[in-house]
Specification:
This protein is α/β, with parallel strands linked by helices and 283 residues long. The chain has 7 helices and 15 strands. The strands form 3 sheets. It has a 6-stranded mixed β-sheet with strand order 1-2-3-6-8-9, with helices on one face. A 6-stranded mixed β-sheet has the order 10-11-12-13-14-15. A 3-stranded antiparallel β-sheet has the order 5-4-7. The protein is globular. The N and C termini lie far apart (45 Å).
Length: 283
């Protein structure tokens, strides 16, 4: 059975959030939700997440899962807000503890895995009404990256992008280009008609419209970084050279200190204000 899939594209971060539902029971999951954050003013908003909730209400959907493909470095997660609004459980890959240790130490915050409701590993399954959510562990971008398979659809997070844009960077702490290559080949071993939904779309030269749905056959034939015939050694050499030219994501410091806490903000100061830390010369 095919799930119902509603994408929501956030132009500020080029992120795609998905509302995915079982058409029979109307149970639904939200994948990779975005918390609006203006780094110039420090202002937060739940507008994007609330748009997803409004769509769920209009469609008569019950949100039961909030699925994070990994701890994002390019946007703040709205998972905690959505948990409070819906009672849904937040899910992430079990290796999030490795990411929490790295960035918890950087920001000097306590980040226990219990802030997430469910940690999943390879071959774990979750029920979504009459559908099954299956988990693939697809590390390389981060140690905790997972892909969620729902019906004929694979939600791959940042592991790979549209064919004309390629693949994720692998130079974050805990990332590894060889591991990323093997994760991509695992995804591309799925049936060729499997639909692939990416978490981001950045417009490459020559394309003017954002896109976020592709499939295994198209990726195997035309992914500019990882199409069939590219060896692991070739991929690692390309990815390593390319990553050396990339700047840190604009929101890496505010996002990771929130996202390792499942989207929760730090506790207020004695004066009642909430502060995000900006470690100097840390990256």
């Amino acid at each position: 059975m095919k799930p119902i899939i509603h994408p929501f594209f956030d132009t500020a971060t080029n992120t795609v959030t998905y509302l995915v539902a079982d058409p029979a029971t109307r149970q639904a999951a939200i994948i990779d939700p975005v918390l609006d954050f203006d780094p110039k003013s420090g202002r937060l908003s739940t507008m994007q997440a609330d748009d997803v909730l409004a769509k769920a209400r209009s469609e008569g959907l019950e949100i039961v899962w909030i699925l994070e493909t990994h701890a994002h470095a390019d946007h703040l997660s709205a998972a905690d807000h959505l948990r409070h609004e819906t009672g849904a459980r937040i899910v992430i890959g079990e290796h999030i503890d490795a990411v929490q240790k790295i960035f918890g130490a950087l920001f000097e915050i306590d980040a226990p895995t219990r802030v997430f409701d469910r940690l999943v590993s390879e071959d774990d399954t979750l029920a979504l009404g009459g559908l099954t959510i299956s988990v693939l562990h697809t590390p390389g971008h981060t140690p905790a990256c997972v892909t969620y398979l729902i019906g004929d659809a694979a939600f791959v997070g940042d592991t790979m992008f549209m064919p004309d844009y390629g693949t994720a960077r692998a130079d974050f702490p805990g990332g590894d280009a060889g591991t990323l290559y093997r994760s991509i080949r695992k995804i591309l071993a799925l049936p060729p008609e499997t639909r692939i939904f990416v978490c981001h779309d950045y417009l490459p030269q020559g394309r003017i419209a954002h896109a976020w749905e592709t499939n295994v056959a198209l990726e195997r034939a035309g992914n500019v970084h990882a199409h069939d015939g590219i060896s692991e050694a070739e991929f690692v050499a390309m990815r390593t050279a390319r990553d050396a030219t990339l700047a840190a994501p604009t929101l890496i410091l505010p996002s990771l200190q929130v996202n390792i806490l499942a989207g929760a903000l730090p506790a207020p100061s004695p004066g009642g204000r909430i502060f995000l830390k900006l470690p100097v010369n840390a990256l």
